[in-house]
Amino acid sequence: xxLIVQKYGGTSVSNPDRIxxxxxxxxxxxxxxxxxxxxxSAMSGETNRLISLAKEIMExxxxxxxxxxxxxxxxxxxxxxxxALMQLGIKAKSYTxxxxxxxxxxxxxxxxxxxxxxxxxxxxxxxxxxxxxxxxQGVDEKGDITTLGRGGSDTTGVALAAALKADECQxxxxxxxxxxxxxxxxxxxxxxxxxxxxxxLEMASQGSKVLQIRSVEFAGKYKVKLRVLSSFEEExxxxxxxxxxxxxxxxxxxxxxxxxxxxxxxxxxxPDRPGIAYQILxxxxxxxxxxxxxxxxxxxxGTTDFTFTVHKNELGKALSILKDKVQxxxxxxxxxxxxxxxxxxxxxxxxxxxxxxxxxxxxxxAEEGINIQMISTSEIKISVVVDEKYMELAVRVxxxxxxxxxE
Length: 407
Ligand code: ADP
Ligand code: ASP
Ligand code: MG
What we know:
Layout: E1 3-8, H1 16-31, E2 35-40, H2 46-57, H3 63-70, H4 72-87, E3 92-95, E4 102-104, E5 113-116, H5 119-126, E6 130-134, E7 137-139, E8 145-147, H6 153-163, E9 168-173, E10 194-196, H7 197-205, H8 213-222, E11 226-230, E12 239-242, E13 255-259, E14 262-271, H9 276-286, E15 291-298, E16 303-311, H10 315-330, E17 334-338, E18 341-347, H11 357-367, E19 374-378, E20 381-387, H12 391-401
Parallel strand pairs: 1-2, 1-9, 2-6, 3-6, 9-11, 10-12
Antiparallel strand pairs: 4-5, 7-8, 11-12, 13-18, 14-16, 14-17, 15-16, 18-20, 19-20
The protein binds adenosine-5'-diphosphate, aspartic acid and magnesium ion.
């Protein structure tokens, strides 16, 4: 007997038939004697619909109230899933985040899970119930509803698996595993049988939204056995996230990630003197705006141009902080924003022991006439910022150049 957490995403619960299908699958596992906790997302499109509704009332929705609204999507699907299980004669009980004991901090719309009191769930499992938990939501210390950021049901699933010391966490979605890149952009993408935790973390942080990054962090921290599978296929082993050290068969590159969510800010004509980076980025950090890539170039006249990227949603805020508080102070010539950029990254632990990956990447992009605006590297990834309109082309040609296609 094993304890398994199964998380089903939006498309897997998008109508009553699909919910019945989940119930059937849960029934099969239950019949094998396993204890099952199901985590569900809202029906696909529902979270977006709720956010749009909020925006009709308030252009920049109040975060606390927004969480009260968007968390309702998951409350609908837990009830439906529990009822679908009952219809099959399976004892089932649904839990909201609060009922499941999911305590978070108070950072509405992007809360972090602090603790899970799983006593009630354990008691129900021992009594033979399938427990169905709402993904994406929790409560803070005051008992106010919080949500975990887009895609947060993955994190609920993995965090619950960690808290319950589950044998496995299965993430069921609309693709049958982790691919070398998003199969919607490159149809030739290949499913990976396994991917190391480090690579998955890098893929997720560079924009592969198949798993929310925090879910991967949880899996790493608590060594949760994590597998991504299709909810539409009866069989298939999906992709296992492994914690093994590199092995000889490890490919050099495991995948290509991309991200359209960043925007670029350039501060032009800054005097080249100590303290400038701090004077520019200090106020940005004080406003809780995350900065990703940073470059600085010195021009012949002794001034420098300072460029960095932030999330698109925070571009306006970053620009106004710089114009109001920084520009005059450091006598910068101009401050410009550009949200028509995209970041493309090649990821693989194998590149540690291989030289020439960066030059192959740059050559491939050059051959297509794609200009690289920014570069950043780590031991296991190389990222470039390009014009948004060339993003898909860049992903496709890199996928081919690194021979990642299906054989
Ligand atoms: P769910 O609603 O089940 O959480 P998501 O839409 O959040 O599903 O995640 C699944 C989607 O992630 C896929 O449909 C696919 O388009 C996208 N995706 C992006 N990168 C990858 C990748 N490397 N491998 C597989 N899917 C990917
Ligand atoms: N329903 C939430 C979202 O759309 C959480 C999730 O699906 O994981 O972001
Ligand atoms: Mg998702």
